[in-house]
């Protein structure tokens, strides 16, 4: 055992002072027969030896030949997650190096492939020497008959959603050691691959009882009993497994999960409600900062920066509500995306079907009728959210009316002989003037407009009922007929 000189030791060849030293040795993927000569020589030379885990075939083989390694398995009980455990293992290795001057630290496979503790040791302020070992991937590619130089990748299955983001083609998944990990992998792959898509499970590579089994993706977490020597191979072809949205989803789940953010973990759908509104309004404010004709015209540099940022905040609200719903077993973000995709295709028969709609007005008419049928509603105005601000509510009502060619009545002083010319500025002035006038009389503008909207909606429903009684299809009716039905439903002055 080497003497300790504060936290430095003398170099045995040059006689100079050096830092504590860790020689990291790769044990290879299986038994001692796949241990490289350089790795064995390092273990024989250095008397103080540690191994990350004794759950490796080569550890028992070495012990039979008199090369004992102190296992650090007990540290796996010190943390709630692997990041904490690996940090504790790295700290223990550094402590041992400071105590003994030089130690050997053995890890499964290759120290340079999917070995988190080695990454931590590199930044620990000590000298590191890496003695390579065969990686499980080296044996796996050989068994699979695949040249990794053709674009194949090795991915950590524990962080599959993030690490595979945007990847396509052949992938070898390491650390598939629990059914929970296999389930996460399966669910991520099912977003882009068919349930019957075949994957290959590799177990005990390099050992006499090694197995390569082909199973359907849907059965991955059921047909396999995984252990620490299990990996999975999948080829997605040209289909990318996950993109940036998948990374954001994984981040959101991490924030909600054990060891994540206490604030995010405490949220409910109702506690987040105001944040959805706030972010939506901030998106609207960012849109107001854009040139009026955007995206056309001359766009100044940086004009879109605010909108990009605010859309990201709003997207996170979509993500976290989807994660909450997923926790309740209701739906996932994939269901949300799939649902809106299906809905958009269904509501655009003029694009994806044989319906003709050559103008924006015709598109709106089709859209509103399809939407009404989807929701099994008897009225076009039935599905308008009642809690909307009054002006937004009125605009939605007017859009519904416009879809069947109906223009509401204007007050007499606005419907005179001269055409009324309104632009954005004059409309703003007029609305402000009305708000000021109402305030002078003690009338709340929001309430007044909301009351008008309710009267309009009630009258619209009466018109639809009258049309149905007379076997009139409002969507296909002549605007003059629609107007006559509208006039027959007048009951309340000012409507």
Describe what you observe in this structure.
It is a single chain. This protein has 495 residues and is of the alpha/beta class. The chain folds into four domains: 126 residues, Tetrapyrrole methylase, N-terminal domain (Cobalt-precorrin-4 Transmethylase, domain 1, 3-Layer(aba) Sandwich), CATH 3.40.1010.10; 105 residues, Tetrapyrrole methylase, C-terminal domain (Methyltransferase, Cobalt-precorrin-4 Transmethylase, Domain 2, 2-Layer Sandwich), CATH 3.30.950.10; 102 residues, Helix Hairpins (Orthogonal Bundle), CATH 1.10.287.1080; 112 residues, no CATH class. It contains 19 helices and twelve strands. The strands form three sheets. Strands 5-4-6-3-7 form a five-stranded parallel β-sheet, sandwiched between helices. Strands 8-9-12-10-11 form a five-stranded mixed β-sheet, with helices on one face. Strands 1-2 form a two-stranded antiparallel ribbon. Helix 9 crosses helix 12.
What coarse outline follows from CA principal-axis ratios? elongated
The proportion of residues forming helix, as a percent range, comes to: 40-55%
SS strand fraction: 5-15%
Q: What radius of gyration results from the CA coordinates?
A: 34 Å
Q: How many beta-strand segments?
A: 12
pLDDT averaged over residues:
83
Structural class: alpha/beta
């Amino acid at each position: 055992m080497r003497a300790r000189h504060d936290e430095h030791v003398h170099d045995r060849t040059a006689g100079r002072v050096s830092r504590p030293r860790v020689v990291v040795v790769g044990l290879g993927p299986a038994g001692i027969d796949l241990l490289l000569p350089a790795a064995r020589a390092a273990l024989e030379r250095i008397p103080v030896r540690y191994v990350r885990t004794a759950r490796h075939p080569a550890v028992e083989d070495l012990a039979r030949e008199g090369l004992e390694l102190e296992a650090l398995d007990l540290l796996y009980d010190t943390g709630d997650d692997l990041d904490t455990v690996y940090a504790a293992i790295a700290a223990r290795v550094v402590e041992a190096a400071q105590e003994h001057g030089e130690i050997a630290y053995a890890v499964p496979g290759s120290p340079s492939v999917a070995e988190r503790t080695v990454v931590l040791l590199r930044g620990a302020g000590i000298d590191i020497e890496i003695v390579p070992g065969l990686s499980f991937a080296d044996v796996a590619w050989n068994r699979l008959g695949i040249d990794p130089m053709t674009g194949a990748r090795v991915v950590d299955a524990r962080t599959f959603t993030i690490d595979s983001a945007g990847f396509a083609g052949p992938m070898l998944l390491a650390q598939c050691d629990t059914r929970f990990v296999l389930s996460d992998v399966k669910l991520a792959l099912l977003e882009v691959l068919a349930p019957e898509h075949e994957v290959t499970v590799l177990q005990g590579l390099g050992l006499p009882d090694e197995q390569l089994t082909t199973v359907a993706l849907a059965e991955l977490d059921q047909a396999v009993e995984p252990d620490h020597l299990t990996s999975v191979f999948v080829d997605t072809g040209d289909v990318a497994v996950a993109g940036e949205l998948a990374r954001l989803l994984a981040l959101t789940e991490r924030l909600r999960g054990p060891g994540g953010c206490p604030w995010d973990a405490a949220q409910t759908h109702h506690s987040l409600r105001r944040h959805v509104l706030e972010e939506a309004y901030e998106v609207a404010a960012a849109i107001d900062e854009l040139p009026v004709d955007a995206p056309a015209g001359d766009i100044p540099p940086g004009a879109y920066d605010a909108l990009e940022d605010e859309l990201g905040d709003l997207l996170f609200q979509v993500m976290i509500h989807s994660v909450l719903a997923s926790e309740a077993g209701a739906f996932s973000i994939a269901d949300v995306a799939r649902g809106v995709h299906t809905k958009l295709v269904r509501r655009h028969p003029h694009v994806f079907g044989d319906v003709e709609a050559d103008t924006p007005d015709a598109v709106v008419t089709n859209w509103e009728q399809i939407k009404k049928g989807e929701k099994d509603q008897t009225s076009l105005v039935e599905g308008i959210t009642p809690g909307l601000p009054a002006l937004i509510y009125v605009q939605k009502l007017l859009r519904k009316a416009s879809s069947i060619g109906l223009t509401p009545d204007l007050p007499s002083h606005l419907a005179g002989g001269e055409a009324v010319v309104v632009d954005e500025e004059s409309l703003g002035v007029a609305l402000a003037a009305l708000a000021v006038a109402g305030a002078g009389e003690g009338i709340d503008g929001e309430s007044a407009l909301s009351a008008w909207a309710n009267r309009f909606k009630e009258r619209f429903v009466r018109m639809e009922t009258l049309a149905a009684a007379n076997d009139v299809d409002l969507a296909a009716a002549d605007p003059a007929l629609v107007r006559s039905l509208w006039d027959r439903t007048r009951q309340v002055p000012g409507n």
